[in-house]
Structure formats: C-alpha cells, structure tokens
Amino acid sequence: MFENIEFSHAFQPILDIEQDMVVSYEVLLRGLNNEPPEFVLSQISKSELLPFDQYSRERALETAARLGLDCDINMNFTPSAVQYDEGYFVIATIEKLKSLGYKTRQLVVEITESELIHDIENFADVLDILRSHGVAIAIDDFGAGYAGLNMLAEIQPDLIKLDMSLIRGIEKHGPRQSITRAIYSVCLDLGIDILAEGVETEEEFNYLSGAGIPLYQGYFVAQPAFEYLPQPTTRTR
Ligand code: G
Ligand code: MN
Prior knowledge:
Shape: globular
Oligomer: single chain
CATH architecture: Alpha-Beta Barrel
Bound molecules: guanosine-5'-monophosphate, manganese (II) ion
Number of strands: 9
CATH class: Alpha Beta
Largest sheet: 8 strands, mixed, barrel
Order of helices and strands: EEHHEHHEHEHEHHEHEE
Distance between the termini: 48 Å
Strand order of the largest sheet: 1-2-3-4-5-6-7-8
Structural class: alpha/beta
Number of domains: 1
C-alpha cells in the first residue's frame, strides 16, 4: 500500500552512564536521503497516517534486525496510535518484533505527546494491557507540549524523557536546574527511569550527570545515523 513512498530510518543510541553502555536505540523516520520526518509524512494523507506509521515501524524493525541490533529499541507512537483499537498497533509491533527473533521486553513504546489525550482513563487502561504484554512505556518530550504533570499523574510510565528545551544550557539556567531536579526526585519516588534528551554539550552533560541523571541521548553522545547503529562518540567519564 505504501510501496511507492520512499523512506528509511536513522538510529540514535541511548547511553546508560552507570553501566557505561548503549542500552537502546531510538528509531527515527527519515527520507531516503536522510531528510527529516516531515518530508516523508507530507506525502501521506491524514487518513493514512496511522497505517503508514505502522508500516514504517515494521520496516524499521526489519532494518534493525539487518543491522544486528541486540539491545532495546525505542519506537515513537502518537497517543492515537497507542489507543487505536485497544492497542492494536503496539500489539502488531510486538508480533513483528517476535517474528524477527526479538523479545517483547526489548520494545520501549515512546508516547510522543503532540496531541491532547481525550479519554485519559481509556488511555491508561490500554497502557495496562500493553504493559501486561511486557513492553516498557516512556513519555517522550516530557515538559513540552501536552506531556506534563497531569499525564504523569494519570499514567505511571517506566521512563521519562526530559524534553531538550529543559536541557538546553541547563548548566547556567537556574530555573531549568530546579525543574529538572524536581522531576528527578518525583521519578525516584515513583520508580521511574529518567533520560535527558537532546544533550548537545559537555557542560550540559556534566551538569546532568552531577544531578544524577543516568540515561542520555543527544548529539553530545551521538548523532542519529542513517541505516546504521552508531556508537557514542564522546568520553562520558
Ligand atoms: O520527538 P522526539 O524526541 O522523538 O524527536 C527526536 C528528534 O530530535 C529527532 O529528529 C532527532 O534527530 C533530534 N535530536 C536528537 N538529538 C538531538 C540533539 O542533541 N539536538 C537536537 N537539536 N536535536 C536532536
Ligand atoms: Mn522519541
């Protein structure tokens, strides 16, 4: 159905500095010449976005398997994709994952909060179903858009990804530091993992590691790489 759409994927590592290893890769949609996701999505009609997204995820898993990915894999889902038919798309992703020899627990479902969730109770129920299948749930871009404290109060994710707007220049920005420390403390209380996204500089990294953040993603660690699993490029200790 989408055979005529030209796209592929880039992979960006997630580094755990306590274990000093890459624990996952986030899959990112790209054009065939590494164009940004909007370039690909602009070719898809609105009514076909959800099925295209799923087609793209399944192709991405095939690419990951071909590249020899053997850690976790973070995949983006909009709230609508998660909620659709009681988790149909996530369950289809799990099936694809298993058909390639992966374990369900290797999948991290990143909920990209670009839209308001209308029925949060139903949403939480669907997440419970998905958790019972064994996937991990992450809130993406936490602190931006709709992904805030109300969402955290309603669903207890396994992981929070701090939005890069909170990270930018944090070493010299008192309010961002206070907010990040407060979220860190909430995560500790609730047993939620916490990751800093979009870390670009050594100064940001040093501040965040001093504050106890264990997981990192961003240009400072490694740029996303087209059809390739990059290793961290920086010494982080
Ligand atoms: O919404 P989500 O967090 O899934 O989007 C990740 C996007 O952020 C990707 O398009 C990726 O290329 C981009 N990205 C990853 N690391 C960095 C970074 O360090 N700085 C900036 N500006 N963008 C980044
Ligand atoms: Mn994401």
